Amino acid sequence: MPEKVVESFNVKHLSILDEKGVADESLMPSLSESDIKRMYELMVLSRVFDERALSLQREGRIGTYASILGQEASQIGSALSLQKSDRVFPSFREMGVYITMGYPMHMLYQYWSGDERGMKCPADLNIFPLCIPVGTQIPHAVGAGMAVKYRKEKVAVTAYFGDGGTSTGDFHEGLNIAGVFRLPVVFICQNNQRAISVPRETQSASKTLAQKAYSYGFHGIQVDGNDIFAVYKAVSDALIRARQGDGPTLIECFTYRISDHTTADDASRYRGKQEVEEWKPKDPIFRLRLFMSAKGIWTESYEKEIEEKSKEVVDKAVSVSESISPQLPKDMFLYTYEKLTQRQINEMGEL
User: Fold this and answer.
1) Could you say which DSSP state residue 326 is in?
2) Which helix (H) or strand (E) is 220 found in, with range?
3) Active site residue: 257, 271, 289, 343, which one?
C-alpha cells in the first residue's frame, strides 16, 4: 500500500501594525478613533502602574513583583476583546488584563503587598486570582469551560500563561480536554522568550508554540504580541468562535519581557544587553504612538495629559491601598480552612 498524508496543517503569523507605525488596512479590525485612544491610554496607564510597582518594591512597600514591561499590547489588546461575563484565568503577570477589565487598582497593590484580600474579585467581574504556580490555572479554565458549556451559557473562558507554561503537564491535559469536548476556551500564551532564565528554544523543539493546538484538534495562531491591533483581532475572532460553539483556540503572542522575570531575578546574568536593545524599537506603546501621530490623533500635549492622568490614578490607588488596615495573623487560618482542627485552634491562640 502506498504511503499517504493523513493530516497536515499550517501555522499563520498575524501582524497588522509594523514597527514604523504603519498598519495593513486590509487586516485592520473595526476600531473607532475613540477605541484606538482607549488602547493607547490603557497601555500607558498599565505602564505607569508597573513602574510604580517596581519603585514600591525597591522601597520595601510591596513584595516580589512580576513586571509587564513590553507586554502591554498582548494584555490590553486581548482584554479589550473580553466581556465582563467571560471567565478569565490569569497567571501572575497579567496586571494589564486586570486594569483593562476594570479591576480596582488599589486591590492589585494590596495583593502585591501580601494582602490576599486584594484578590477578592468584585461581584461584577469574573477574573480569578493570580496563579503563581506555572500552568495550574489552565485545567481550572478548562473546567470552567466545561461548566459554561453544560449550562449553555454564551460566554467564553480565557486562560493566560507564559511560554514556560506550555512545558507543563497541566497545559497538555487542559488542551486535550478542551479539544475533545470542543470547549469555549481561548488559550492566550504570552511567549516572552524565556521561562525565567530558560530560552524558549530549549523548552520545546516546536518551531512555534501555536502549532501545539493542532495536536489537540483545534485552531492555533501566532500573532505579533507587540502589535495591539493583531492581538485584538486574533482574540476577538477566537472569542466569537468560542461563544458560537466552535471550540477552543490557542493564540501565541510573540512578545518580549524587557524587565527581569520578577524583582527577585537578575536577567543580566543570563541575557545580553544587545538582545534587550534589539527589542526596544518594537515597543508596543511607541509603535501605536507612531500610528496615531500619522493619523493626527496623537500630540505631545495629549501624551502629557494622559501621563499626568495615569499618575494621578496610580497615586490614588497606592494611597488607598496603604490606608487599608493590615490583615490579622489569625486570618491565615480563617481564610484557608472551612473548619479548624484543635491543633490549628491552639496554634491560632498562640499568635
Assistant:
1) P
2) strand 219-224
3) 257
**How far is Cα 185 from Cα 239, in angstroms, rounded to an integer?**
8
Determine the Cα–Cα distance for residues 137 and 143; give it in Å rounded to an integer.
Answer: 10
Contact 216, 175 (CB under 8 A): yes
> Is-catalytic flag, 13?
no
- pLDDT value of position 333: 87
Q: Sorting pLDDT into bands at 50, 70 and 90, what band is 337?
A: confident
- DSSP state letters, 92-110: S--HHHHHHHT--HHHHHH
- The active-site residue, picked from 270, 302, 335, 337, is 270
Global pTM?
0.94
Residues 6+ apart with CB under 8 A from 234: 14, 221, 223, 251
- CB–CB of 201/164 below 8 Å? no
Is 270 a catalytic site residue?
Answer: yes
Residues 6+ apart with CB under 8 A from 281: 19
C-alpha cell at 4: 499517504
Handedness of CA 200, 95, 312, 296 (dihedral sign): positive
Is 257 an active-site residue?
yes
C-alpha 236/C-alpha 20 separation (Å) is 24
Query: Choosing from 106, 200, 219, 261, which is the catalytic residue?
Result: 261
Burial pattern 44-71, b for ≥16 Cβ within 10 A else e, equals bbbbbbbebbbebbeeebbeebbbbbbb
Q: What is the mean pLDDT of residues 95-106?
A: 97
Cell numbers given for 307? 501621563
Of 231, 280, 211, 222, nearest to 254 by C-alpha is 222
